[in-house]
Specification:
14% strand; 12 strands; three-stranded antiparallel β-sheet; binds pyridoxal-5'-phosphate; alpha/beta
Length: 395
């Protein structure tokens, strides 16, 4: 008898219970799909609608045509690790060892997953700040850990130190710090880093610094990487993404910097997730970083223009907002327009007004019932931003 029909299989097969009962399709995919179906302008998912540097793309072609098509060394090609080392020395005055402390990964997402998997055990607690990027908690749960959510203080999305102190327990393995912050763009000040250091000084708590928007900070502010803080850097996985910096999110190349002992553990996991990251992309990024070291410092100006344009376009709308201080997201309060909850409003905005955005409550464990915030991505061409602004001003 043939077993080729799905029906027959399912009659005697018991599939295991899901390991992630609280996880469905991410809101980013849901909103992007809805935007496509309704021909809406997609300001929901965080990716640019323009390409990365031409020269970098040319170098990928060059490397593919000249035989660089096999596995890269699992920790990353030497030229890219060296370029990362040079970059963090330039920006943060950090002296890291390219051989033992820098690991190239398949996007920041893989580095985050590997860092958590390498260190979080059954029953461990990991502190995250809400609103919180969505890939941390599933990784913690798959490793038997539990996330403790600490709400940031609005409207400036600052750490509530009392709440953080209360959330720390003998089981706290790690604190995840995302700065510049998605979705608010908030950064950490030098004083806040010192305060964090003081709070965890006598513990073994690790830090995971998600710094994928490190080169996108506005109005003359600077990004205080965990790498600038010697004491914190000793207990940190500092993670970034070339996707965000070079407008190449689809290449999925990122990296993690951590002290040798932590990097060694991360690498044990990384080698069994992807083993390595595509070779031609790594070589091309390294070449571009070496020939254009000024690029990273110019990125804030590039995105500040976009932020300013978008804010200018929506200044006559009924949305209320404070211009973002970093990242490529702008939050906006829609309470003058509607009293719908934010998920319903984001759907309505996509299907009826033709602009897709992300509801902020999906980043929170316990969203405030009266919160009326949505997130727009302004990593878009001028025409896209102007067009979206026109539509938003009609509401
Ligand atoms: C805060 C944050 N961390 C990590 C990532 C994932 O980066 P990558 O695409 O390099 O995996 C993103 C992407 O949107 C992000 O916003």
């Amino acid at each position: 008898m043939s077993l080729s029909t799905g029906c027959l299989w399912s009659s005697f097969m018991h599939y295991p219970e899901t390991k992630l009962p609280n996880v469905g399709t991410t809101i980013f995919s849901v909103m992007s799909q809805l935007a496509t179906e309704h021909h809406a302008i997609n300001l929901s998912q965080g990716f640019p609608d323009f390409d990365g540097p031409q020269l970098m793309r040319d170098r990928v072609v060059h490397y593919m045509q000249s035989g660089a098509n096999q596995y890269a060394p699992f920790i990353g090609v030497p030229s890219l690790r060296q370029a990362i080392k040079d970059k963090v020395a330039r920006h943060y005055g950090a002296d890291v060892d390219a051989e033992s402390e820098v690991t190239v990964t398949s996007g920041a997402s893989e580095a985050i997953y590997a860092a958590i998997t390498a260190t979080v055990r059954q029953g461990d607690e990991v502190i995250v700040f809400d609103p919180c990027y969505d890939c941390y908690e599933p990784a913690v749960e798959l490793n038997g850990g539990v996330c403790r959510h600490v709400a940031l203080d609005l409207p400036e999305f600052k750490i509530n130190w009392q709440a953080l102190e209360q959330a720390i327990s003998p089981r706290t393995r790690m604190i995840i710090v995302n700065a510049p912050h998605n979705p608010s763009g908030a950064s950490l000040s030098r004083d806040e880093l010192d305060r964090l250091a003081e709070l965890i000084r006598d513990t073994n708590i690790l830090l995971l610094g998600d710094e994928v928007y490190e080169h996108i900070v506005f109005d003359g502010l600077s990004h205080n990487s965990l790498l600038t803080h010697k004491e914190l850097a000793q207990r940190s996985f500092v993670i970034s993404s070339f996707g965000k910096t070079y407008h190449i999110t689809g290449w999925k190349v990122g990296y993690c910097i951590a002290p040798g002992a932590l990097s060694a553990e991360l690498r044990k996991v990384h080698q069994y997730i992807t083993f390595c990251t595509p070779t031609p992309m790594q070589l091309a990024i390294a070449d571009y970083m070496n020939t254009h070291p000024e690029y990273e410092s110019e990125l804030s100006g590039f995105y500040q223009k976009k932020r300013d344009l978008f804010c200018h376009e929506i200044r006559r709308s009924r949305f209320e907002f404070t211009p973002a201080k970093g990242s490529y997201f702008q939050l906006a309060d829609y309470s003058q327009i509607s009293d719908m909850d934010d998920v319903s409003f984001a759907r309505w905005l996509t299907t009826e007004a033709g602009v897709a955005a992300i509801p902020v409550s999906v980043f929170c464990e316990r969203p405030k019932p009266d919160a009326r915030l949505i997130r727009f991505c302004f990593a878009k061409n001028e025409e896209t931003l102007k067009h979206a602004g026109e539509r938003l001003c009609r509401l």
